[in-house]
Amino acid sequence: MRGIICLVILAISGLDALTVTQSPVDTGVLLGENVTLYCSVTNIGAGETVIWKKSTKHSIRLLFSVFRELLRPLYYVLYPLCALLLGLDAITVTRTPVNTGVLIGENATLYCTVTNIGPGESLIWKKTPLVIGLDGSSTNTAKYAIIGQYNVVVMNAQIADEGQFECEAGGNQYSIMLSVGDVPTGLSIYWGANLNTPIMNAANNLTCQSTNSRPPATFKWYKGTTDVTSQALTLNGTVNSNGYGDSYSYLEVTPTSSNSGDVYRCEASVPGRDNALNETMTLSGGAADVAHSLTMMAAAILGSFVLSSYAH
């Protein structure tokens, strides 16, 4: 008896039910011309039909559809239990989707790999809210390709492709964000306050600047082979309507005579390309320390005053 109940619920609420991919909309037509009313569907199961009527009356088929939609959430809860009870191998997701980045113009593969697809079971891909793939078929072969079991490839990624995708399989729903990046046009590393060399024995801002990337680049800092990113402060400049902008990262460094020769490396990354650009700075002694600099400045001023007095 429990098996029969499971079969009824799965048959009514299952994901293999007829799916409308293009809903009807109110349409106008000139007198004497033809008009097309759209109600595009996929995944028509056994015993399911599409009926067109010029009518305002509701039918029992509509009530059945409403009943089926009310039961559909039960599918996600009961399917694994029913599959176990009936001795079925439920569809299994072996590689779940993860947020993915891609460079403009390149292809991105979104993974939702499955096994054990049984009769009447399907894997549905959406670019929220539109259906873009059903099992091995793509609704737009110029943009999306379905490969393997059943991963989607977004081809020639553009800014408009950025957004949320969904994979529905075996009573599970997964969301994934696709981010589209573009590498910086330039990267520079320098000492703050326009210094050519740092001031010894004092705090200096070692600055890394990324120019015109999408989105503004993120940074990693290394001192030799040690990751010191957590010690840095990163800020973004103005971002334009297409998501492009500059970014800046500041690492506080206090040079001393003992760390001359230390190498600092800055790496800039965007979605789809880690370490898109990098620059290095090597400590080479730098300017004298602050106290010594002030002493030398005072001596120079005094010397100039003495010479001036002697000349007079």
Blueprint (SSEs and pairs):
Layout: H1 2-13, E1 19-22, E2 40-42, H2 60-86, E3 92-95, E4 100-103, E5 108-110, E6 113-115, E7 123-127, E8 130-134, E9 137-138, E10 144-147, E11 151-154, E12 163-169, E13 172-181, E14 186-191, E15 204-213, E16 218-223, E17 226-227, E18 232-239, E19 245-253, E20 263-270, E21 273-282, H3 290-311
Parallel strand pairs: 4-13
Antiparallel strand pairs: 1-2, 3-6, 5-11, 7-8, 7-12, 8-9, 10-11, 12-13, 14-15, 15-19, 16-17, 16-20, 18-19, 20-21
Task: Walk me through this protein's architecture.
- This protein is an alpha+beta fold.
- It has three domains: 2-86, no CATH class; 92-181, Immunoglobulin-like, CATH 2.60.40.10; 186-282, Immunoglobulins (Immunoglobulin-like).
- Helices cover 20% and strands 38% of the residues.
- The protein has helices at 2-13, 60-86, 290-311, and strands spanning 19-22, 40-42, 92-95, 100-103, 108-110, 113-115, 123-127, 130-134, 137-138, 144-147, 151-154, 163-169, 172-181, 186-191, 204-213, 218-223, 226-227, 232-239, 245-253, 263-270, 273-282.
- A six-stranded mixed beta sheet has the order 4-13-12-7-8-9, with no helix packed on it. Strands 14-15-19-18 form a four-stranded antiparallel beta sheet, with no helix packed on it.
- A hairpin with a 2-residue loop joins strand 20 and strand 21.
- Helix 1 crosses helix 2.
- The longest helix has 27 residues, at 60-86.
- It starts with a helix and ends with a helix.
- The relative contact order is 0.11.
- Residues 56-66 and 288-312 have low confidence and may be disordered.
